[in-house]
Structure formats: structure tokens, C-alpha cells
User: What shape does this take?
Amino acid sequence: MKRYSQIFIVCFLAILPFNTQAQQWSKSKARDWYAGKDWPVGCNFIPSTAINQLEMWQAESFDSVTIDRELGYAESIGFNTVRVFLHHLAWQEDAVGFKKRVDEYLTIANKHHIYTVFVFFDDCWNATYHTGKQPEPKIGVHNSGWVRDPGKLIYEEQDTLYPILESYVKDVLNTFKNDPRILMWDLYNEPGNSANGRRTLPLLKMVFKWAREVNPSQPVTAGVWTKALPALRSFQLKHSDVITYHNYFKAPMHASAIKA
Assistant: This one.
């Protein structure tokens, strides 16, 4: 299989207890959960033979050999956690096979003493996607083939897509809700990005609702990433079991983000 150039970007992850509602984890539960864990150190991970989430998880392009080798690299430099994106379309096309591949991936990651943070939805990069062969990379273009989930379909086919997304989220959560190899569930990556703004809020609310109905043993979260969308940011902070955040700047900006 052709190998693509792959850039790994470290995402800094803050884990802080947060609780305002009965349905969330209490502060003591969040502290107890974190007390027995090492400081999470890692990156976003996708094998170098996949240009996006679909190429990673589809049966014809799932590459366990590369995953094993590259998570070995991660282990060798001290990483103990990686953040991995899923995609509902890969599940929709082959739910049973998709979950088997997720389990196979987790077995490989666990062999390398690496926890996983799985991401369900994502508002970043390309708005459309398709099954089958994925596009070739555009040399020099960061994330040239990365796809959103659910992308613009959530606005074009909302009535038919919501039931699919609910089934997807609940099926995956129910299957892996007690799996110790999973550190946490990141329900929505950078909601409101790509100029979606407040239009993302209904789905953000729904994915938290679906997750609460399943009640996984792992915490659920959605990382805050901008102050420009106060309604989404407020919801994320008030409904996450533990607070996670995205910050791509130097240490003083991290300190400022934590204090905010």
C-alpha cells in the first residue's frame, strides 16, 4: 500500500474535574478516575497509509501492520495516549466489521501500553466524503483529505441522518463502554469550526444526550477551543465529565486558557 506523508501534531490535553449537574460525573468521581493514571502524553494518531478516518477504518484499507509499527514508534518516545477519530459512514457501511476493526486497533494500542481517546464528530476540514477509495494527498497541503463528520449532510439531510447518528453513537458506546483500553470519549472535535458556528449546537447537545443514555464507564468530554463561540463553549464546559481543551500556542497561552 502506498505510504502517505503524515504529520503528527501534538494536542495538549488538560484533565480537570468539572461537575454542575447530577447526570455528570461528580468532582470526586473525576478525581478518583484520574488518580490512578499517569499523565497523558501523546498526539492525534492516524496511520501514515490513511489520508482520513474512512481510509483508516474501512475494511479494504484498514492497515494493522502500519498501526502496530507506528504505535510502536509512539511507545518508544514515551507516548501513553493517542487521540483517534472515528467516522459514522464507516460504521454505517459495515457496523459489525467496523467494531471488529476498532477492537483490533485497541488490542494493538494496548500491546504498546497506549490508551485511546476516541472522537465521534468533527467540524474540521472537508465537508463532504464518500466510501471506497479515498483521494490522493495534495503534497504540501495540511490535512488535504481529512473529512468532517457528519459534515454538511447534517444540514441537508437532518431528518434522516439524526437517527443514523444516534444508532452509531449508541452502538459504539454500548460495545466499548466498559473497555479499560479507552481513556475517554471526545464526543465532538472543535464544534462550530469551519464557519458552522451555532448551527452545530443542536448536534452537540444530542451527542451528549445519547452518551448519557448509554452511561459509559469512561468520562465523556468535548474539548473547548475558542472563545468566539460562547454558547458552544459554555455547553461544553457545563456538560463534560472532565474538561479538555485545544491550544496550539506556547506555554503562557496555555496558562491563560486554563485560568479562563
